[in-house]
């Protein structure tokens, strides 16, 4: 597989570094290129592998290259890559390298929103079944670093970028949770983005789809047994929500499984995530009892509708992972009923050419104010200042100060920016951490009635 080939790794981030390690472990000839002059993993690579050639400042494809291993952050449409393809160079991703050697069942998750929660939840469900899963991919540990004979299965979050260069993975079960406009700075239109996401169905044994989102359907050209989930009443062996004993329950068909109020996660979007995980886990052979027990204890993920504190009747929530409009809308809608008052929402960052107008009716209904930050502050102001009172802030300290001035008991403050973070922060995790630090410092832990639990 590796002998006589010349591999070029494009992009020296976490994924690219994992690819270099994997290729060197298999005695492959490796060169690295990155358009940045100081990519994040450069120092580590130079220290561990000083003899690896690194070409920086522009994407450079040496003539002897036979295979390009493309990092997810680099578009396959990049001219240098297209020129290489034209002369016969194969372009793969790290997940394709993983697919060529994996010998255990794979559960794969994609979607515009919720994929990290479902991936992590499935990992917890697998552990509750006594299994040792390898959990990662686009989330956490890169797939190639997960390869271990001790793992019983692999649960992978896959981005649209990773799916673009994936061909031979044969997953036991996959899900496409939802489709909404995202990465419109990389795709020509929503259809192109959808088609990239639908690549997850290639070679899959089973599919789990969202029956309330037609864009998640398995393409007609593929014949795959499918199970659906949704927040409505389900039929047959599909998953949904029913009213039982005067309460809403998770259900399989007409069979009630568990009251929604017993779930540790709150919000309608997390009900949908739980149903998708139940459907996938059943196909993978997980025990229903173990999966339901997991839902009782699983509180969700950091930076995803994470309650920071409840201070003097005001709930402060960190949803920094809300990096697109659909994620923000899901957070507002899903959390709307969790407080008696209104939300003060924090929006802004890098908009990725997104259309923010779907937020207008949600803010009009559920929010008392919006605090705007980052590169999209002015466009958001233009769109929203006649809908709700709007305030601008230069940093998170000012955000928290403004929010604290306008929130009263019963209200909530929600960081769900609908934007990427790179104009002001290292990433969405950094943005969420700074928000939490400022909330705890300025609002004060001594006022808190609940800390760092996830809603």
Summed up, what is this model?
The strands form four sheets. This protein has a seven-stranded mixed sheet with strand order 19-18-17-20-16-15-21, sandwiched between helices.
Essential attributes:
455 residues; alpha/beta; seven-stranded mixed sheet; six-stranded parallel sheet; 15 helices; disordered C terminus
The parts where pLDDT drops under 50 for at least 5 residues are 446-455
Mean pLDDT: 94
Radius of gyration: 23 Å
Instruction: Note the main sheet.
Output: 7 strands, mixed
Oligomer: single chain
SS-derived structural category: alpha/beta
What coarse outline follows from CA principal-axis ratios? globular
What is the percent of helical residues?
25-40%
Count of helical stretches: 15
Q: Strand order of the main beta sheet, please?
A: 19-18-17-20-16-15-21
Q: First CA to last CA: what distance?
A: 47 Å
Describe the protein in words.
This protein has 455 residues and is of the alpha/beta class. Helices cover 32% and strands 23% of the residues. It has 15 helices and 21 strands. The strands form four sheets. The chain has a seven-stranded mixed beta sheet, sandwiched between helices. Strands 7-8-6-9-10-11 form a six-stranded parallel beta sheet. α5 packs across α9, α9 packs antiparallel against α10 (288-297) and α14 crosses α15. The longest helix has 17 residues, at 268-284. It is globular and about 65 Å long.
Give the secondary structure arrangement, pairings included:
Blueprint: E1 6-10, H1 14-25, E2 29-34, H2 42-48, E3 53-56, E4 67-70, H3 79-86, E5 90-92, H4 94-99, E6 106-110, H5 115-128, E7 133-137, H6 143-146, E8 153-157, H7 160-164, E9 173-176, H8 190-198, E10 207-210, E11 226-229, E12 239-244, E13 247-252, E14 255-259, H9 268-284, H10 288-297, E15 306-311, E16 314-318, H11 325-335, E17 343-348, H12 359-366, E18 367-373, H13 377-384, E19 390-392, H14 396-406, E20 412-415, H15 428-444, E21 448-454
Parallel strand pairs: 1-2, 1-4, 2-3, 4-5, 6-8, 6-9, 7-8, 9-10, 10-11, 16-20, 17-18, 17-20, 18-19
Antiparallel strand pairs: 12-13, 13-14, 15-16, 15-21
Helix pairs in contact: 5-9, 5-10, 9-10, 11-12, 14-15
